[in-house]
Description:
By secondary structure, this protein is of the alpha+beta class.
Amino acid sequence: xxxxxxxxxxxxxxxxxxxxxxxxxxxxxxxxxxxxxxxxxxxxxxxxxxxxxxxxxxxxxxxxxxxxxxxxxxxxxxxxxxxxxxxxxxxxxxxxxxxxxxxxxxxxxxxxxxxxxxxxxxxxxxxxxxxxxxxxxxxxxxxxxxxxxxxxxxxxxxxxxxxxxxxxxxxxxxxxxxxxxxxxxxxxxxxxxxxxxxxxxxxxxxxxxxxxxxxxxxxxxxxxxxxxxxxxxxxxxxxxxxxxxxxxxxxxxxxxxxxxxxxxxxxxxxxxxxxxxxxxxxxxxxxxxxxxxxxxxxxxxxxxxxxxxxxxxxxxxxxxxxxxxxxxxxxxxxxxxxxxxxxxxxxxxxxxxxxxxxxxxxxxxxxxxxxxxxxxxxxxxxxxxxxxxxxxxxxxxxxxxxxxxxxxxxxxxxxxxxxxxxxxxxxxxxxxxxxxxxxxxxxxxxxxxxxxxxxxxxxxxxxxxxxxxxxxxxxxxxxxxxxxxxxxxxxxxxxxxxxxxxxxxxxxxxxxxxxxxxxxxxxxxxxxxxxxxxxxxxxxxxxxxxxxxxxxxxxxxxxxxxxxxxxxxxxxxxxxxxxxxxxxxxxxxxxxxxxxxxxxxxxxxxxxxxxxxxxxxxxxxxxxxxxx
Length: 628
């Protein structure tokens, strides 16, 4: 039985607040950025082109004139680049500034000149241009969403509820930023101390010129043997290719202490600490500043209001917003994480408000024991829909506030403020059904509408992302065989009989899985065989963790895994093919009138590719051994 949304008392609905109806919500969703502007494509282009450019660029050797010590300018450029990658995903405006800084560094290093002769440099410039175009497109799409939300809300505006006015944003981010930047500062000081200690020692040391007589490799490092002043000394080096045997090198000697002038000390670990701390600290600082700025902007002036429906997600506690007339909660419009805001008590000052807000945030972690037990048993009910009033202009990346009843048996209302940016819902509600668990209870009318009675058997097969996963695993398998056999006979060969069967099964399944439905049942083709499952023994069809499982009465289930990458497909705004196949198979299981009338021929049932793939793997291994 469907439950009606929990009503919001009339006294908590501002005068003139209009419902956000489905046509307006769909127009808002239609303004989402195009698929090509998804940050994943930009990050892949940037990372791939940057790796190519770094691999193609010559590396300056360590010399006495230009020793390899600390490189803070290069580390700063790396920090800007990594931050830009993060901001491409989270902060489009900051990402544009980061791209500008990256281009400045690129120009200083002669990248624009190199782009005329180096394909790798040109590819990086094109990736930057593609990323910038995607960022501008995303910002323009957010502007269109803002305009459509304003049009739906109308001219009526109202101030925020009193509790939202005292809500503080960014405190946790600021604390983390301070800690991480302090760690980066400590790493910087420690690296400086090591460099200063070397300079102090070298100033009073004896400078000698020696000859490299040997190079040894042990488990920890490469060791140079240098003969100078009638004595052989040993030096660890990170770049043995810069010091071939027979070459001349400069060293400094002070008693038992000696160092290479070209490679005087190693602060690589401290540099990594500085890079990680500064990047993470700056990212948290920017998030805190952005969140606090947006929250202050909300409190600055009266805001448009919209009447909506809200529901808390099962898995991650996201707040899902639905159109006011979507009484079943079938198609969410947007989502965000939120926390309760509490009205300021008499006599509290600003600092007291922040402390109270922090304590109240801690109360959000308290969960009823009965609810925990229900979740563990899989008996937790779907959170109810609640009527709500949404304050602010919803658009991608915005901050909003909403007022909604606490629950179906509670007369109190809660004021909640977003603590993450607004995110449009995925098309066809696939992400919401996955997050909230509604797919377990969702009527299958939508899938049933797409299916009509047919005579010929129906076939669902691998395609798209499943093929991509299979090809990636195939490359991994080929590279693993090469790496294991390249070292000659050793204990590492035991890896082959242990891991190769799993890889072969995964590759063959991802590339060619197939399910055929005919008059008698399902023909499930995996990596090694085709199994028939009659309709009268099927008790359920499930999809989880990129696995399709057909449950059978009084027998073990039939599994296909992997069948794609559902997480990435959802993030790209697509409905996972394997999930759709599972829903349609479930419809056929429950509605016999939609099942095909004919039996599937051997050709329609499919041919497993596990055996020929095994033969190809053996041939590949033999070819590797012959090439060694």
